[in-house]
Design goal:
Order of helices and strands: HEHHEEEHHEHEE
CATH superfamily: Chorismate lyase-like
Strand content: 35-45%
CATH architecture: 3-Layer(aba) Sandwich
Number of domains: 1
Helix content: 25-40%
Number of helices: 6
Number of strands: 7
Strand order of the largest sheet: 1-5-6-7-4-3-2
Structural class: alpha+beta
Shape: globular
Distance between the termini: 19 Å
CATH class: Alpha Beta
Length: 180
Amino acid sequence: MITAPEVDLLYPLSLFRRHNDAPVPLYDIVPPEAVPEPYRKLLVHHGDMTSRLETFHRGTIVLTVLHRERKKSAYLREVVLRIDETDLPVEYGAIEIVLDALPPAVQEKILEAHLPFGGLLNTFRVKYRSRPKAFIRLGADPFMSELFEVDQPHDFYGRCNELLGDDERVLARIVEVLRP
């Protein structure tokens, strides 16, 4: 297992862990074909997570913000995506959004912090593509276990991802971790 200082893949996550005085969990980089199901279906693609999670869990995704901050044109937030109908936490996300790469109306909705980023891009028909940088398996982590309301120690699967606009400009850098 390696840690974030060796690889900058978990940059958004490491920002929030430093803020909370918590270590970044140990993780392995996993080849896409080695990501087990159902995680592979949910993580290994070039689209957004919001629509995939809504289809998989058969519900509407809502956003709970754990922490947020603004740095020049970057907006950083740490979130939990939940199924609205059941309140089930299905994804933990740490995201750095490049606000000035987005139309003003989208920026406004992002700053309201009520809807997931991918859902907003789809709603406003912002053309983008997902560019996964790595798929990861995080070791058992007390913070993630509490967040996902799981009693037993678990490995967690996720991805380090970038969303790119039509012009190949980075719109966001994201660490997305799924419920076990």
